[in-house]
Amino acid sequence: MRIVITEFMSLDGVVQAPGGPKEDTDGGFANGGWTGPFFDPEVVGGAFAEATERAEALLFGRRTWQTMAGAWPARAGDPFADRMNAIPKYVVSQTLGEADLTWNNTTLVPGDKALARLRELHQAPGGDLLVMGSPSLVRTLLAEDLADELRLIVMPVLLGGGKSLFPTDGTMRTLELVSTVTSPLGVNVCTYRRPE
Fold first, then answer.
1. N or C: lower Cβ tally within 10 Å for the chain?
2. Are 195 and 175 in contact (CB under 8 A)?
3. What is the DSSP string of 18-66?
4. What's the distance, CA 170 to chain centroid?
5. C-beta of residue 153 within 8 angstroms of C-beta of residue 9
6. Residue-level pLDDT at 76
7. Long-range Cβ contact pairs of 68-73 (< 8 A, separation 24 or more)
8. CB within 8 A of 66, min separation 6: which ones?
C-alpha cells in the first residue's frame, strides 16, 4: 500500500490543532482552529475529499484517532462522514486496548510493534493508506522512509510555534513536487512524492 500523508500546515511548519481551540493545547498552544478562515470547500475540502476517495484505509496516531472517533460517528448521513466511518482504520498506540476501539472498523497497531506492522502494510498490495493529523506518527514515517506521498495544505498564516511533522535528525530527504493548486484565499495544496 502507498502511505499518503495529508496535512494542514502553517507557513512556519506548524500542524498542531488545525480544527479547533481545544483540539491540542500541548505546550500552551493557544491558536487552535487556525485553518477556519482559510477553508474553502472547493480547493481545501476537495483535497481531503480526493484523498479519502482514493484511500483503501486510514492510519492514525492515538490522539488524532481519539479526536476523529469522537466526531465522525455522530455525523452519519453526510457522504464524507459515512466514508470516514465505513473505511478500515488503523491506530498506533501504546495505551489503547481492544476494548477502546469504539470507532467502526478500527484495528489496533500496538506501539511496540508499530514499525514492523507499518512496514508490512507498506509492502502489502492495495491502494492508499491515508494519514491525517498524527504528527508524531508522520515524523516516524518520514524518518523511516515509509511515506510515498506528502500533501501539504499550506495556509497563509504564521503561528510562531507548535508541533511540526518533520524529523530533526539532520538527514536530507529529497521529494518531487508533482502538483500545486492555489485557493482564492491563498492556500497552496502542494503534493510531493518520493523520487522514482
1. C
2. yes
3. -S-TTS--GGG---TTTTGGG--TTTHHHHHHHHHHHEEEEEEEHHHHH
4. 23
5. yes
6. 85
7. 68/103, 68/132, 68/133, 69/102, 69/103, 69/106, 72/103, 73/103, 73/104
8. none
d(CA 196, CA 184): 32
In angstroms, the CA 166 to CA 173 distance is 10
Q: From the DSSP assignment, how many helices (H) and strands (E) are in the chain?
A: 5, 8
Q: How far apart are CA 53 and CA 101, in angstroms?
A: 23
Do the Cβ atoms of 47 and 182 come closer than 8 Å? no
Tens digits of residue pLDDT in 116-129: 999 999 999 999 99
Neighbours of 84 (CB within 10 A): 23
48/153 Cα distance (integer angstroms): 9
Cα angle value 4/140/61 (rounded, 5°): 70
Residue 182's DSSP bridge partners are 188
User: To which residue does cell 480544527 refer?
Assistant: 19
The span from the first CA to the last CA of the chain, in angstroms, equals 16
Query: Residue 137, exposed/middle/buried by CB under 10 A (0-12, 13-18, 19+)?
Result: buried
For 60-108, the pLDDT digits (tens) are 999 999 999 999 999 988 888 899 999 999 999 999 999 999 999 999 9
Is the predicted pLDDT of residue 169 greater than 90, yes or no? yes
